[in-house]
């Protein structure tokens, strides 16, 4: 389906139950898409636990862009997308997340959307080679529990354990999680179960 925002249309694929235990909304990295292996692993786990999962291709990607542009505009579009999805899934807990830039969006907007938690995959702590430009504040200011899963070889860095509720590091992985999706699923599963019971 498509959802209109001030930044253009977003494309949303919804999987899972029509009367779910929770709604999980996921989005992609800056130049990526919603078929990334880590996103699919989290989606599969959530559906198996009785959730509904909405994978969002953001408006700038639908329009063919590779850079997300202004964080303010991106967050405004995300809030519109979540508001539309909440009309369809009214009374269940909302969990949001994404990989890389999508994880940043999920953290920045968590309080405004009323999310109960965030799943942050490959959170880009800083631009490659520029650790002084830390984005740890986005994790700390999410206002909800945040589960971070990063590879220990990620050139964007690995958040400190103090920056989130849980920081799980996968050995031998970079930014794109070429392996280890089973480990991602096993880390996320208990959090999805607990959040869905709130």
From TrEMBL:
Gene Ontology molecular-function annotations: hydrolase activity
Record key words, sorted: Hydrolase
Record-given protein name: Alpha/beta hydrolase
Matches recorded under InterPro entries: AB_hydrolase_fold (IPR029058), KANL3/Tex30_Abhydrolase (IPR046879), NSL3/Tex30 (IPR026555)
tRNA-binding keyword on record: no
Domain KANL3/Tex30 alpha/beta hydrolase-like: 22-178
One Pfam family linked to the record: Abhydrolase_11
Source taxon at top rank: Bacteria
